[in-house]
Amino acid sequence: MTEQKLKIAARNVNVFYGAKQAINDVSIDISTGVVTAFIGPSGCGKSTFLRTLNRMNDTIAGCRVEGQIALDGQDIYASGMDVVELRARVGMVFQKPNPFPKSIYENVAYGPRIHGLAGNKADMDAIVEKSLRRAGLWDEVKDRLAESGTALSGGQQQRLCIARAIAVSPEVILMDEPCSALDPIATARIEELIDDLKERYAIVIVTHSMQQAARVSQRTAFFHLGTVVEYGVTEDIFTNPREERTKDYITGRYG
Ligand SMILES: Nc1ncnc2c1ncn2[C@@H]1O[C@H](COP(=O)(O)OP(=O)(O)OP(=O)(O)O)[C@@H](O)[C@H]1O
Ligand SMILES: [Mg+2]
């Protein structure tokens, strides 16, 4: 049994793009040892809310976040917060695999180098190997570490991006539709990986696949029109939703 521990507490979060409100009063707990799925129709605010959790919205002009988001009890929007460090603690994997146009090795070594995590070449080699192993990619790439990350297959690139996120020892990994560009076999590998990773990290995954949410997550939040309609144990959400709107969505009546 994986131990569960509260990692992120989001309270009464509102997000605006200019005058338009995209997230309305969302409160959610995210725990280590748990995979939390965000589901809901296109445009309901899943990516917007996900980005509040490591302040990626800071990079979008006109975007404003209100409310409290605490990481281990510490307000991540406090003025003294080091955003670079925050994004190492709360890593992100995107929909489209986006390896740097550098070698496989450098893709993984980049973050640890910036954060000064390796004292010497041997330390760095160890971090790169460990991260690639944990991402389930080591055996496929160990003899071609100097090749470009962009030369890998889509599924391999996505695992490389996961290795890159893991390399800086994050506490939380945010994944925004990480499998939507992958075939079923590559998707199954990423899902297995997510299951392994949840032992040590808090994982949040946005997905349009109900099957995927049901397979990989233990908690599910159903977003609709910028609000969280229902949040709870995944099995309950899928077998016995409390809200009519949740039921309609998971049974495919709209979305
Ligand atoms: N950079 C932006 N500038 C202005 N409005 C935005 C921006 N990004 C998102 N929005 C708006 O915020 C709302 C929520 O969008 P968001 O991308 O969070 O939805 P989503 O649930 O992730 O959708 P999808 O499932 O299609 O990825 C939408 O109305 C969208 O148009
Ligand atoms: Mg999105």
TrEMBL record:
It is a peripheral membrane protein. One of its GO terms (cellular component) is plasma membrane. Its main location: membrane. Keywords: ATP-binding, Cell membrane, Membrane, Nucleotide-binding, Phosphate transport, Translocase, Transport. Coiled coil: none annotated. One of its GO terms (molecular function) is ATP binding. The keyword Translocase applies. It is found in: Cell inner membrane. GO terms for biological process: phosphate ion transmembrane transport. NCBIfam families: 3a0107s01c2 (TIGR00972). Part of the ABC transporter complex PstSACB involved in phosphate import. Responsible for energy coupling to the transport system. This is Phosphate import ATP-binding protein PstB.
